[in-house]
Amino acid sequence: MPIDFLGSVFLDGTDIPYWEQIKTYGPAVTLLAGIKWYMGGNNNIWDRDLHGKVYMVTGGTSGLGARTTFEMAQKGAQILMLVRSTEDQWLVDYIEDMREKTNNPLIYAEECDLASLHSVRLFATKWLDNSPPRRLDGVVCCAGELIPRGKPRQITIDGVERQIAINYLAHFHLLTLLAPSFKVQPADRDVRVVITTCSSQAMAQIDFKDLLWSERQYPKGNPLKVYGTSKLMLGLFAKSYQRQLNVYERKDKNPVNVKISIVNPGLMRTQSMRRFISMGSLLGLICYMILWPLWFIIFKSPFQGAQSVLFALYAPIFAKGDGGNLVQECRILKEGSRREYQSEEFQDELFTKTEQLITTLEKQLAIERKKQELKQNKDDKNKNNKKKTTESKEKHYINEKPKTVGELDSRINELRNLIGMGQQLSSKELPLFPDQTVDSIVGKASNPTKRKGKKV
């Protein structure tokens, strides 16, 4: 019997080399390998040809977003990465490297700083300002900001807490501004929007009186509360936004074929996670490197985390139904981990209040930008006037005839100084004016006493 044979080999030994070491360490290694395999999660089994399709990606330069972008580019998709600035040599090299590795030249970048609502609006306006409407097959929202523990509150240029601003407000603003583009896509086009969330939403605390966490005390010791709140609000927004797209009536009477998926990719070994665990310090980074074998076992790689995102993009089941699906480990969840996912009223109220907040913020920021613009124009005008006055004085100074000998000497000394000939005349040089005598320059008396003649 096989069991008897294995039992005798394990207890009595065998002629296999290093059997004692295998018997000692084998069970532990097997256990660790099993944990590693289990923590890696499920793999996406679906495939899809993405040639000719256009996708926007946020957070496409690192972590989960970078791996998702790479996988989509290998399938032939045209990728438009939304980045903080396009004037970055590293970004140019990064895109060129990805084009070469994926053999796909259709990878581009556009400026869309998620820390600025104005930047998001500028990009969306530029995208929509095209006739005929541009093709758009999907948006993948992977960008996220996670502040390390112990760090003080950080705000964006708009004055909003950074995690709330980037993780929630920016994506809310981007997707709602792109609504006209979603609604005009052909009815037979399979458009998919993927929003990434996180398990930290279990710690979320949504307060309609303080959605942006501007009045509540910032939890410096546990920033995951704010991060989780931003991710929960993003998921609830997706639910409400999906219903709005579903009820929109097109002119051709066809439904809007846009499906939103809320994906939890799991815990991954990304730059953001490393920064959070190390608490943004050198000592923390050293501890992170020492414990790296532990992180290697319990955390997914970006490739493993991207499997659920790719599942939401590739699986044909998402083209059917009403959308707004929660996805985890390449499976569609029936219910969310929070009761807010079952309350349409709560989701719609969150959508409305967020929309009002963004409108108020944009008005205030527009006024502030106008003030700064007027101030800058005034400063530039004063600077130009001062420059013109200086130039006029210099011109007048050059053309004006010297009135005194000292003024002429001063001007000549300035010219001599410019050409490096010194500032003052040597005492042995000839006089500049004919009424001056050499004796007066070399120190002799200019009015010598006359000799008196003797009387005869």
From TrEMBL:
Gene3D superfamilies: NAD(P)-binding Rossmann-like Domain (3.40.50.720)
Record-level Gene Ontology MF annotations: oxidoreductase activity
Domain of life from the UniProt record: Eukaryota
Species whose genome carries this gene: Scheffersomyces spartinae
Listed transmembrane segments: 276-298
Keywords: Membrane, Oxidoreductase, Transmembrane, Transmembrane helix
Ranges in a coiled coil: none
Entries under SUPFAM superfamilies matching the protein: NAD(P)-binding Rossmann-fold domains
Disordered, as annotated region: 372-400
Similarity comment: family membership: Belongs to the short-chain dehydrogenases/reductases (SDR) family.
Name of the protein in question: Oxidoreductase
